């Protein structure tokens, strides 16, 4: 059940995970619910979120609906507590916002200026064949984004169920993602 | 400050780091009547924090100040290190293997790296006593490569479908396997439950079947009165201004405030990179850092080059079943270190329980499969994938080192910086073995074979033990050479890496240290 709260309560509770701003209220909901409810991003722009969804959904179908944009945006507010896989790949939390912003701005330009299909854009990105790409190498960004998308689509009890894998948690995650 | 004045005045020992080494030492020393306080950089954790989710589990990894990493084989500190009670051993896989005899003398035998100041026989009794206390499952007789030692206290874990499938590849290529020895209960042991084989080891084991410090050393330490101060980030050790060999305590930061704590003895067990950082930060304008009189502090940083080989089979493997570390082991090539252009020992850890996502997941390792092809492929892999991991020896080199960065954290403490490059012979070893691993997968019947990238597994060295003060930082008991009462514990003491997972050996060393310190006090 969604729970409205104040920004102050959010911060003092230390629960940056799975709290999303929707229509002026902070809600404790899943990333998928946040996406469906029209969440307001805190770190990424609306344009960056849109590009994020297009690219991620091409890499891992279902990523958009599973809430890839609110998931990454919320983790970018978490500071040292960020759980993004980028942390293990040489992108520490303090650099993650710049990492995503630069790549997504490049992706936005790529999709807009050449009117490419998402599939072709991903092909160019994964082969480092995008002119004037900014930030970390495009192929590396593609790898990271694919891993993020796998997290939100298949890294959950629901995701395991889709693949026919028994989840068999010792302690079940409190959050549906 | 939460520590009371009386405790501060009566402290015998400060231990920095509540990981496998730190908590073993804390328990053993406190059980002899010592007053011990442990300072842990991360938060307090208990088994109820160990959520079965690869995403949630990332909070168990290092979340302290960033470590700058350079070189062609970066050590992967954020992945390998832990944060909070139990340290990295909370998310370790429980693969507990003894070093082989030849691992202790690579310089004498082969002219590479460093010799250890002790041999296998020096550690043998401690391997035996620790395995009895912690509980290991395995089949010592089947491990024909295993050095002499007591039998395992528990029988091996069962071999599931994936293990049986992959074993065929080893059999057909003339390689031998044995059940993987694990610090995981195959049956109830000393009040702890038996494993349920659900593959959540990487996320921590809340049922206590895997011997992480939260269920082994921590209860003993708490019962013996050890105090653990969490979120206490140690900057440096403090020296007696009138006697530089005497360490008087440590300086640490907690919630942005600077504190000092004093004791008769200080043990730094903060995992490899942070242990070296703390010592390096303890230099001042008049004196080099403790243990750095000959510029050895931070040197001989090592990390096992590892790689995972995957195969997709027609047979069902059910890769969700089992434990993260694997089901079988092969050490057939271990003792042939010198192979011309390639050098080093290596081992195969065979048949991991794996998930579809996360860094070690089978989905992450196939970036060539995406879009509409992905879900059917993942559904296939979820029942038919097999995997095994190569762990190779790293050559200890002085130029691979931990140093201090120009950058500082929010408290003004210099960040740690690592530089690690692989020797060409080590890189060659990795290439050869990964190629062989793919042949083994094909021999096992895989219809698709691929491998992941070369990754850094485990971090060792930097405060290496040795007999020669000009080539090491500590003596064989971990006492920093130019000090009376400052010790280091953990994998940073390893002069060379061998090719086995380090937790058993660092625990045996800590056991030997505890015995030494107890006798010293008597």
What portion of residues of chain A belong to β-strands?
A: 5-15%
Question: Unreliable stretches of chain A, pLDDT < 50, 5 or more residues?
Answer: 1-17
Quaternary structure type: heterodimer
Described by strand count, sense and barrel closure, the largest sheet of chain A is: 3 strands, antiparallel
Q: Using CB atoms under 8 Å apart, which protein chain pair has the greatest interface?
A: A-B, 43 and 45 residues
Lateral strand order in the biggest sheet of chain A: 1-3-2
Distance N terminus to C terminus of chain B?
32 Å
Q: Which shape of chain A, going by the Cα principal axes? A: globular
Q: What's the gyration radius of chain A in Å?
A: 16 Å
Helix content range of chain A:
40-55%
Q: What is the H-and-E element order of chain A?
A: EHEEHHHHHHHH
Shape of chain B: globular
Number of strand segments of chain B: 20
State the separation between the terminal residues of chain A, measured CA to CA. Answer: 15 Å
**What's the number of helices of chain A?**
9
Helical fraction of chain B: 10-25%
What is the arithmetic mean of pLDDT of chain B? 96
The parts of chain B where pLDDT drops under 50 for at least 5 residues are none
SS elements, strand count of chain A:
3
Integer average pLDDT of chain A: 87
- Number of discrete helical segments of chain B: 11
Q: What is the strand and helix layout of this fold?
A:
The complex is a heterodimer of chains A (177) and B (522).
Chain A lengths: L3 E2 L1 H7 L5 E4 L2 E4 L2 H7 L8 H14 L3 H4 L1 H8 L17 H21 L4 H9 L11 H17 L2 H7 L14
Antiparallel strand pairs in A: 1-3, 2-3
Helix pairs in contact in A: 2-5, 3-5, 3-6, 3-7, 3-8
Chain B lengths: L4 H6 L2 E4 L3 H11 L5 E4 L28 E3 L6 H4 L25 H5 L9 H15 L26 H12 L5 E2 L37 H7 L3 E3 L3 E8 L2 E12 L2 E6 L2 E4 L3 H9 L21 E11 L15 E3 L7 E2 L2 E2 L2 E5 L23 H11 E8 L8 E8 L5 E6 L4 H20 L4 E4 L3 E6 L25 E3 L14 H19 L1
Helix pairs in contact in B: 2-7, 2-11, 5-11, 6-10
């Amino acid at each position: 059940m969604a729970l409205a709260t104040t920004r102050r309560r959010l911060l003092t509770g230390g629960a940056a995970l799975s709290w999303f701003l929707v229509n002026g209220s902070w809600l404790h909901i899943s990333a998928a619910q946040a996406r469906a409810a029209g969440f307001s991003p805190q770190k990424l722009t609306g344009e960056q979120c849109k590009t994020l969804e297009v690219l991620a959904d091409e890499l891992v179908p279902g990523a958009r609906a599973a809430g890839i944009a609110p998931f990454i945006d919320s983790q970018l507010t978490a500071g040292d507590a960020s759980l993004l896989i980028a942390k293990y790949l040489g992108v520490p939390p303090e650099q993650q916002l710049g990492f995503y912003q630069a790549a997504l701005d490049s992706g936005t330009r790529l999709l807009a200026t050449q009117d490419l299909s998402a599939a072709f854009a991903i092909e160019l990105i994964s082969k480092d064949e995008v002119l004037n790409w900014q930030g970390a190498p495009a192929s590396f960004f593609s790898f990271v984004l694919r891993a993020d998308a796998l997290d939100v689509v298949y890294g959950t009890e629901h995701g395991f169920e889709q693949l026919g894998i028994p989840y068999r948690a010792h302690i079940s995650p409190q959050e549906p993602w | 400050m939460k520590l009371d004045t009386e405790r501060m005045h009566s402290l015998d020992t400060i231990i920095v780091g509540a990981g496998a080494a730190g908590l073993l030492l804390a328990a053993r020393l406190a059980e002899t009547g010592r007053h011990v306080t442990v300072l842990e950089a991360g938060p307090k954790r208990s088994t109820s924090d160990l959520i079965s989710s690869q995403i949630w589990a990332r909070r168990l990894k290092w979340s302290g100040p960033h470590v700058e990493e350079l070189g062609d084989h970066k050590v992967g500190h954020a992945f390998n290190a832990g944060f909070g009670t139990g340290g990295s051993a909370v998310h370790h896989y429980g693969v507990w293997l003894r070093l082989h005899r030849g691992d202790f003398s690579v310089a004498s035998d082969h002219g590479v790296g460093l010799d250890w100041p002790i041999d296998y026989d020096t550690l043998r009794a401690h391997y035996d006593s620790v395995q009895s206390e912690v509980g290991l499952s395995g089949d010592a007789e089947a491990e024909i490569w295993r050095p002499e030692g007591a039998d395992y206290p528990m029988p091996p874990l069962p071999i599931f479908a994936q293990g049986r499938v992959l074993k065929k590849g080893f059999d057909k290529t003339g390689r031998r396997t044995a059940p993987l020895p694990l610090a995981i209960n195959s049956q109830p042991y000393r009040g702890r439950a038996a494993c349920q084989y659900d593959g959540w080891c990487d996320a921590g084991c809340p049922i206590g079947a895997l011997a992480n410090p939260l269920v082994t050393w921590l209860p003993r330490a708490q019962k013996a009165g050890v105090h653990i101060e969490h979120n206490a980030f140690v900057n440096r050790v403090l020296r007696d201004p009138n006697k530089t060999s005497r360490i008087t305590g440590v300086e640490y930061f907690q919630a942005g405030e600077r504190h000092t704590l004093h004791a008769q003895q200080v043990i730094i067990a903060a995992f490899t990179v942070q242990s070296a950082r703390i010592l390096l930060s303890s230099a001042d304008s008049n004196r080099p850092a403790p243990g750095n009189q000959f510029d050895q502090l931070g040197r001989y940083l090592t990390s096992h080059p590892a790689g995972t080989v995957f195969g997709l089979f027609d047979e069902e493997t059910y890769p969700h079943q089992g434990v993260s570390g694997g089901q079988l082991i092969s050490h057939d090539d271990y003792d042939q270190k010198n192979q011309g252009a390639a050098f080093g020992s290596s081992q195969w850890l065979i048949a991991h329980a794996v998930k579809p996502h996360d860094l070690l997941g089978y989905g992450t390792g196939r970036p060539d499969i995406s879009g509409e092809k992905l879900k059917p492929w993942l559904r296939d892999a979820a029942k038919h994938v097999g995997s095994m991991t190569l762990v190779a020896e790293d050559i200890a080199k002085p130029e691979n080192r931990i140093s201090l960065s120009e950058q500082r954290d929010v408290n003004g403490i210099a960040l740690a910086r690592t530089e690690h490059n692989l020797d060409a012979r080590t890189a060659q070893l990795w290439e050869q073995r990964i190629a062989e691993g793919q042949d083994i997968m094909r021999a096992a019947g895989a219809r698709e074979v691929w491998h992941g990238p070369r990754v850094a597994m485990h971090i060792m060295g930097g405060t290496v033990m040795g007999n020669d003060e000009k080539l090491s930082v500590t003596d064989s008991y971990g006492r920093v050479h130019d000090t009376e009462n400052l010790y280091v514990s953990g994998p940073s003491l390893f002069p060379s890496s061998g090719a086995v997972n380090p937790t058993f050996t660092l625990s045996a060393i800590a056991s030997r240290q505890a015995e030494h310190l107890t006798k010293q006090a008597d």
